[in-house]
Structure formats: C-alpha cells, structure tokens
Amino acid sequence: MQVEFPEKLDFLFEPARYKVAYGGRGGAKSWGFGRALLLLGAQRPLRILCAREFQNSIAESAHALLAQQVDLLGLSDYFDTQEKRILGTNGTEFIFKGLRHNVASVKSTEGVDICWVEEARTVSKASWDVLVPTIRKPGSEIWISFNTELAEDETYKRFVRTPPTGARVVKIGWEDNPWFPDVLRQEALDLKARDPIAYETVWGGNCKQVLDGAIYANEILAASGASPSRFGKVPFDPSKPVHTFWDLGRADKTAIWFAQVVGFEFRLIAYYENRGHALQHYIDYLRTVAEERQYVYGEHWLPHDARNELLASKRTIEQQMWDAGHRVRIVPKLTVAAGIDAARLLFARCWFDEDLCADGLQALRNYRYDVDPATQQFSKNPLHDWASHGADAFRYFAVAIAEPQAPPKPLDGPNDRYARRRRSDAKPSGSAWAA
C-alpha cells in the first residue's frame, strides 16, 4: 500500500517507549499519528488507547478522525467502525478515554500496546503520574502529539525540555505537512509578514511566556523572573498551621489550595482537585495528606455556596465540615473583578511549590479572559473552562486573607463547636489567623 505520509513522522514506525511530535498549527500531527496507528493495527493485533485530558463524550475523542482515515486509506475491509470503538478484523482494538479525574477507568485499562495522547498540551501532572505507569506491557509505547503554547506546560517540560531516556522527540510544522492547503499556507505567510512574533507562536510552534488574554500574565512573569524565582521548592514549616481554600463542585471540579503564612510570605505548599465526588472524599483526602506530610490544619475557607442546602443531605457542606472536626470560615463575598484585583495585589508575596502545586499553577497560567463573539476582542469576563476552578480557589484565598486581623481576645463564654461557629460568623471580613 502506497500512503502519503509526513517524512518527519517516519520515526513512528520505529520502536521507542516515547514518541513525541510537537510544533505549530498545521503540522498534520493528528493525521500522521492516526494513519500510522491504523497501518500498524492492520498489520498485527494491537490494543490502542486513544486518550485526551478532557473527553466528556466520544465526539471529543480521536474517533471521528480515525474513522475518516479508515475510509481515506481504503481500510474498510480491515476495520469495523463502531459507535464507541474501532475494531480490526485481526483483533486490533481502538478504545477512547479522558484522563482528567478518570483515574479508576485509566488504571483498569490493561494490556495496552500503544497509548496515543492527542492534544496533550493541557495534560496535567496528576494525569501523567497515573497514565505512565499504567502503560506497562512489555514493549508498550506512549505517543504524544500537541501544539505548543507555554514553556511551563507540564507536557512540554516533561517530554520536550527534559525528555525521558530513549524518547524520540520531533518538532514538526506546516512546511512538513504534505496535505497542507494553499489557503492556509497564504494565511501563515500573511501573518509572518504582518506580525512575526505571533507567527512564531501560532505557526512556528515556539513557546509563549504567557497566553494571550492571561489574567495573571504580569504577575506570573514577575514571579518567574524574580531572583530567586517564586516558583520552586517551598519548605513546609511544621510550626505553622496549614489553611485551605476551596472552590466547590461535584459534577464540576472541586479545587483546594493549601497555604501557610510565614512572616510576610504566603506559601502555597500544595494543591488538589478532583470531580464527581461527594464531600467525604475531600475530607478523607485532608486526613490522608495531613498524616503523610504532618500538616496541622488551621482554617478551611469555603465559598458562600457551602451554606446551600443539598438535595442528598439535610446538612450543608459547611455543617458537614464542622461535624468532621474542621474549623470553617466563609470567604467574604466580592465580585469576580474585585477578587482578581485582590489576587493580583497578593501575588508578589506568594511562593508556590512547583511540584506539589503543579496543576494549580497550570490553572493560573491558563486562566484568561473570554472573547466577545461580536467584537472578537477580550471581554471583561473570565473564560469558564478547566482552568477556572483552580483560579477561583486562588481568588478566594486572596480575598480571605486580604485584611488580616489581630489575634482574638481570650474567651469568656461557651466554647463548643457551635459557639465557635457563631463567633466566626460575627467576625468582620478578612482572616483572623495568626502568622
């Protein structure tokens, strides 16, 4: 069979544990990877996992691309394209899964020969930490394709900046694409003439320092450019309490920042997010991480919706946290814009643990303004996407500690759990925790 194929992707037919193709728009990475997998799967039975960070339905997967390639390559006699799978007559199987917050399903996927992670730029550290050891069959391979954006993206750092031993890493652009249409070729050349810097990032595949429209662009640049950088290894101080700051969700994500106040520094020492779980999952996580890292908790700051009554429970999230033995505070209610301003002011005093806060930092770097569909300009409203939950939790952190208060006076009255809660509710906006 004679198949047109990008020369730079020839390495896909050679054995390697990791095969990585990255670059700018129009490089035919997805087409090339899809064709290679179908050709290999037609030759011998393979179990191929096609993964993305976010996949809420089969329509968001590579299923349609592969089905199209089956037709273009004339392989309809070799593959049966079903609604959620593609099966080869020789036993080859293509399966499709999302990675983020889908740990149990990913871990249960046994016997994978090749895992293709498509659009891998946004894959989180937590997802990679689960996926890589799951693909453990002898001779198994992990294929990675993505368009570059930020040099601090987890995928870029892990597989391009410091690739694993034996990895095959190739940068590919539109010039290497045998199917590149003339209309897009002219668009690329026009942008190169009009805005060479934009061309280098959009079509050239070179990394940006910050995303266009990034809400915390200046703050992130200042933190990374500081000497020393405020993104690095942040020490945990066992003499100080650990406070947490939450953005709540169930079908949506719940995000939690863990912070300490040490002198005039705000130390962001850990971050956790998940979805699809009831509150007990997060209470159990607090206990587990406290035991592992010797945390002693101070206050847990929740947004106002923590006081909403739940259909499945007679108790609010706030009440459940109190009943679990945690001291709870509700974040003062401000507009989103005012909260963002508070976060910007606070950023210069924040130090972030680059490893334990990796997914939270990824959210902050990707938190950006939405685009007005009428003007195609950035609006005043943040885009609500996967990055907004971690960013919202960080905003609540900033609002909660914007006005530190003096230590409370000695108690003169009841000191049971509910009395403490009444006193907490009566306090003015701002934190009462001591540094």
UniProtKB/TrEMBL annotation:
It comes from the Bacteria. Residues 17-205 form the Phage terminase large subunit N-terminal domain. Residues 405-435 are annotated as: Disordered. InterPro entries: P-loop_NTPase, Phage_terminase_lsu, Terminase_L_N, Viral_DNA_packaging_terminase. NCBIfam families: phage_term_2. This is Phage terminase large subunit. The lineage of its organism: Bacteria, Pseudomonadati, Pseudomonadota, Alphaproteobacteria, Hyphomicrobiales.
